[in-house]
Amino acid sequence: MFLATSVVAAVPLVAAPAAFAATDDVTWTVRTASNDLGADRTNFSYALNPGAHLDDGLVVANRGTEAVELDVYAADGYTTSTGAVDLRLAAEEPVGVGKWIVVPQHHVSVPAGQTVEVPFTIDIPADATPGDYAGGVVTSLTVADQTANVNVDRRLGIRAGIRVGGDLAPALALDDVGVDWDGGAVPFLFGDATVHYRLHNAGNVSLTADDTDAVAGPFGWGEVDATPGDAAPILLPGESWQRDVRVPAVAAMGMIWASVTASPTVTDASGSTTVLDPVVGSAMGWAVPWPLLVVLLLAIGAAVLGPRWVRTRRRRRQDAEDARVAEAVARSLAETAVPTAAAGRSS
Question: Structure pTM?
Answer without folding.
Answer: 0.77
